[in-house]
Amino acid sequence: MTRLIDQRLKQVPLFSECRRRDLSFISAILRERSFPAGTQLTTEGEPGDEFMIILDGTVTARRQGRRLVQLGPGDFFGEIALLDRGPRTATITTDTPVTVGIVGRREWQDLLAQPGVAEQILLALAGRLRAAEPKSL
Asked: Domain ranges in the chain?
């Protein structure tokens, strides 16, 4: 069963370069949950205690009621609130039935303690920053 979860995580771009040992660690701390369409997973401005990876389905991110982006399998959200302990930056609502992998705050710290995983998260965040701010230094 763990190898099946590891293979599923290997398909998530965020973790595609992780070693098998790292994937097994992630599998061990990840909680899988399913939600019906129309469920609000996060609320802009509220505290955030979970990082989520979309395993199946689609969600829409909105800021101040304005649609930002639709996310699907392999996309993730919630890392900013965990990194800076600030409020959620967007409201995320499911468009379809969704299955997500959830990492809580305590497990997030353990995840960042894994050098290979932390590097992948930093690379993904840098990519997001570059895309959001094309003229950033």
From this structure: 31-120
Pairing of strands 59-63, 31-35: unpaired
- Token pair 């965040």 is found at 125
DSSP 115: H
Nearest to 107 by CA among 50, 53, 48: 50
The sheet that has 91-94: what strands, in order across it? 40-42, 91-94, 59-63, 66-71
Q: How confident is the model at residue 52 (pLDDT cuts 50, 70, 90)?
A: very high
What is the pTM assigned to this prediction? 0.82
CATH homologous superfamily of domain 31-120? Jelly Rolls (2.60.120.10)
Length of the chain: 137
